[in-house]
Amino acid sequence: MFNQRSSDGAYLTIPLRESFFTDRFTPIEIVECFKDRFAYLLESRDQGSWARYSFIGIDPFAFVKKGDEEFVLNDVNGEALARASHLRELFENAMAYLKVQPIDSPLPFTGGAVGCIAYDAISDFDKVPRHDNHDLCMPAYHFVFCKTIIAFDHYEQKITVIHFAMLHDARDEEQKEIELEKAKISIKNIVHMLQTNKPDSQVNPWPEASHSKDIDQIKWRSTMAKSEFVEKVKRIKQYIASGDVFQTVLSHRIEIDLPVTSWDLYRTLRVTNPSPYLFYLKCGDFEVVGSSPERIVKVQGNDIEIHPIAGTRPRGQNQKEDDQLAQDLLEDEKERAEHMMLVDLARNDAGKVSDFGSVKVPKLMAVERFSQVMHLVSIVSGTMRRDCHPVDAFTAAFPAGTLSGAPKIRAMEIIHELEPTARGFYGGAVGYFGFDGSVDTCITIRTFSCKGNKAYIQAGAGIVADSDPELEWEETFNKARALIKTVERAEKLFRRAGEVHHV
């Protein structure tokens, strides 16, 4: 999405900006200052260069939805502002309508579309069958544009407020000046509120140890019985033996009764499972809450980055054990082979939209340590071709091979055949498409889709030629266990303490 002027050379969406230093607020407290106006929170809470900013969106003014035949940009009253048959075209038309004035800022995100895309949206980009069973009744796309972005810089303890003046209804220059003055008053009110108010509610002190119930004692329901999963693993191994695929990710969904609000669930998740990509999205009658370690694609200027992650070990109890586990991971031939397969997939995806010869692998199979686990991580980079749009870079890499398999199209056909329901947001994407053309998206894993008093999680296993069906079933629950325990811990912290919070 690139900034465009109107036909008379004027911009119609004008950013205003104010910054100030503070040590009084956390992003959680900022959200609770604007409960009725809040739309999303994007954070990064882990060691390393990713963990600098939190972004809070308030005052939504437009939404991206997908109907049966077309994408639509609607205002808050449901009036269509732009239409298109393809996601790229929709964002181009949205920018043509909005006519956003550029803003010079060191922030990686200064406004644009924030939201989520379901795994099943792949049918809009590739020749993959669309699943018939969408039993959760959630849309394939939900993106929101907000009038106000509050950026929290954790390194400098600085808050930057960006507020957009919307001049589309102004009939002349005098009315434009009036709207600009209104916007200046609005941003000053927001800054004043941040500088003078402090929420009453405080997060309970975290227990020194989590005495979580065993997974078998927590009520859950899966879309697939163990025996069914085992038989489907065997079926995938037959496909592998016949040369159809090298790997396919088979998953199943788990439904959990949610004893707390989705907001309190997020507050717990960001502490118990901090990751490079943390997100809380309000999407009408449902919320998407997650903690993802893996980027799908990032676009900054003409630079493209994909971060394949594959290969996992738990963190050690001390530095010596941690280093031993890291070395074991680096020497595991099976983990290395699976990782290289995903690196090759990422190189192929980047190559679809990059200048010839520009695709590189600047980092290969480095051990990255996260809060609970360590992974093998690589970086694949490229230079985007001039005839490509940032949305093209996203669709080239979507969905991630980590959640589909290789070759990607055939693996997705097998997933469609064997999984009983549409995946929804599992294996899809969460992130932003900025007004300035920047894109940053992560894989929707370690994520809750919350609707009413239910939370839905999904976990899968990458099936290869020597997979043990019983162990693959156990792997899915090893992945799900941390999320299930997060629900139980949230209940202890909030519901039992009588401190349930809504936003």
TrEMBL record:
To which species is this protein native?
Answer: Scopulibacillus darangshiensis
Q: Which family, according to the similarity comment?
A: Belongs to the anthranilate synthase component I family.
Ordered alphabetically, the record's keywords are:
Amino-acid biosynthesis, Aromatic amino acid biosynthesis, Lyase, Magnesium, Metal-binding, Tryptophan biosynthesis
Q: Which PANTHER family does the record associate with it? A: AMINOBENZOATE/ANTHRANILATE SYNTHASE (PTHR11236), ISOCHORISMATE SYNTHASE MENF (PTHR11236:SF48)
What cofactors does this protein use?
A: Mg(2+)
Decide whether keyword Transmembrane is in the record.
no
- Pfam families tied to this protein: Anth_synt_I_N, Chorismate_bind
* Protein name as catalogued: Anthranilate synthase component 1
Q: How does it assemble?
A: Heterotetramer consisting of two non-identical subunits: a beta subunit (TrpG) and a large alpha subunit (TrpE).
| Function of the protein | Part of a heterotetrameric complex that catalyzes the two-step biosynthesis of anthranilate, an intermediate in the biosynthesis of L-tryptophan. In the first step, the glutamine-binding beta subunit (TrpG) of anthranilate synthase (AS) provides the glutamine amidotransferase activity which generates ammonia as a substrate that, along with chorismate, is used in the second step, catalyzed by the large alpha subunit of AS (TrpE) to produce anthranilate. In the absence of TrpG, TrpE can synthesize anthranilate directly from chorismate and high concentrations of ammonia.
EC number(s) reported in the record: 4.1.3.27
Q: Which residues form the Chorismate-utilising enzyme C-terminal domain?
A: 226-479
Tell me, what is one Gene Ontology molecular-function annotation carried by this entry?
anthranilate synthase activity
The metabolic or biological pathway listed in the UniProt record of this protein is: Amino-acid biosynthesis; L-tryptophan biosynthesis; L-tryptophan from chorismate: step 1/5
